[in-house]
Amino acid sequence: MALNNTIIDFIGNTPLVDASHLVSKKDVTLLLKLEGNNPGGSVKDRPAFNMINEALKRGDIKKGDTLVEATSGNTGIALALFAQVLGLNMVLVMPENSTEERVKTMRAYGAEVILTSSDVGIEGSRDLAFKLRDEKGYTLLNQFENDDNWKGHYKTTGPEIWNDTNGKVTHFVSAMGTTGTIMGVSTYLKEKNKNITIVGAQPDDNSRIPGIRKWPEEYVPKFFNRNKVDQVIEVTQAHAKATTQRLAKEAGVFAGMSSGGSVYCASQVAKSIDKGVIVAIICDRGDRYLSSDLFE
């Protein structure tokens, strides 16, 4: 290992762990991509770094500038980390019901965190971020419209999955939040093999699952392309929570509820096929949910 590596050099190349015993089907392989192994602890390290780095390269921002972004958690942590490393100021806007661990982690990296009413959810945080951009002159990265979000996954996550499965992946399953992960990975994998099935996990109408959203029409991420998702599976909060607990107890994978939602949907895919290689995204680590009731 080179002695002059920085934290940036350790983004990506996350493990792909065999958890086929969770689906117990002889010819179906279930692989879990452990994105909690990124430096900032989540899949959001990839787009966060790519959005900031590409903006710096284009000259859209420079060192010392102040960025603002709305987040429900993981993107904010990643942005706080890489803004600090790259010499930028970071203001993050998030709902007040976000877990304490997330808020404290962002502040530990030096970001200013503004909490908005839980009644207005992430949509209200997004509205305030636009207001701060207009009133304060901050630069809004806007992860929900920024093509550098999904391109971070096109450059890294997609190729890693293809290479690490030796091109044998048949199904890719991901929670859908900003939808950057599923858009970037789908774009790459479909270029390699158009027959790979892309599956998105979405909460049902009665469920609240951190990191997975069913957006009101006016808030749907601008780069989301429904044609790049072959199947959407709805998951209940109860199923996502139970699967998250099962991941820890039966696979040694300590993760958040969005990962439970992803793996639950992967298990539903496994029931519908006779053979295949399913790759599911494990979005983050479970330690940033310990103040919630997720593991109770």
Automatic annotation (TrEMBL):
PROSITE patterns: CYS_SYNTHASE
Domain Tryptophan synthase beta chain-like PALP: 9-284
UniProt-listed Enzyme Commission number(s): 2.5.1.47
Family according to the record: Belongs to the cysteine synthase/cystathionine beta-synthase family.
Signal peptide residues on this chain, from the entry's feature table: none
Residues found modified as N6-(pyridoxal phosphate)lysine: 44
Gene Ontology biological process: cysteine biosynthetic process from serine
Cross-referenced InterPro entries: Cys_synth, Cys_Synth/Cystath_Beta-Synth, CysM, P-phosphate_BS, TrpB-like_PALP, TrpB-like_PALP_sf
Binding site for pyridoxal 5'-phosphate: 74, 177-181, 258
Catalytic activity: O-acetyl-L-serine + hydrogen sulfide = L-cysteine + acetate
A Gene Ontology molecular function term of the record: cysteine synthase activity
The entry's keywords: Amino-acid biosynthesis, Cysteine biosynthesis, Pyridoxal phosphate, Transferase
Keyword Cytoplasm: no
Enzyme class: transferase
Annotated protein name in UniProt: Cysteine synthase
Pathway terms, separated by semicolons: Amino-acid biosynthesis; L-cysteine biosynthesis; L-cysteine from L-serine: step 2/2
The species this protein was found in: Seonamhaeicola algicola
Coiled-coil annotated spans: none
Cofactor(s) required, per the database record: pyridoxal 5'-phosphate
Domain of life: Bacteria
